[in-house]
Amino acid sequence: MQLKVPPVFVFLVAAVLLVIGAMLLPVGAIAFPGQTLLAAITALTGLGIGVPPVRKFRSRQTTVNPMNPENATSLVTSGIYRFSRNPMYLGLMLILLGLALYIGSLTALVILPGFIWYMTELQIKPEEERLSEIFGIDYLDYRARVRRWI
């Protein structure tokens, strides 16, 4: 199952589960002043964190496709990659958090940790193995310096 499901599909499934959970469990709904604004800021922050790395990968002419990490031609460690090894996934998680805040569903307490677990175990760790093989000590040094998520 590792690296078999595109991360964007996993993100979409998690988003759908958040919405369905809110509809099926309206008792678990929360509302607070500024909720919509906080949700928008969180989701926009996710976009701001997740989109620039795509451009950076393209400018370095390396693959953006996480399904085939063996096609990586360049190790990107600058910009946001100084703080997170996986800003694209971090961005997706923040967009999900923004959605969860917007709909006010407590199902986020299950869906968001599930998304993080899934991405870490079935996407990121296999990617890390392959990148270690491709970039060797350079990637291992980078991995030792920079956290997986934040």
UniProtKB/TrEMBL annotation:
Main localization, broad class: membrane
Membrane topology label: Multi-pass membrane protein
Alphabetized Pfam families for the sequence: PEMT
Segments passing through the bilayer: 7-31, 37-54, 89-118
UniProt xrefs under InterPro entries: Phopholipid_MeTrfase
Localization (cell): Endomembrane system
Keyword field: Membrane, Methyltransferase, Transferase, Transmembrane, Transmembrane helix
GO molecular function per UniProt: protein C-terminal S-isoprenylcysteine carboxyl O-methyltransferase activity
Entry EC number(s): 2.1.1.100, 2.1.1.334
One of the GO biological process terms: methylation
Organism: Roseibium algae
Name of this protein: Isoprenylcysteine carboxylmethyltransferase family protein
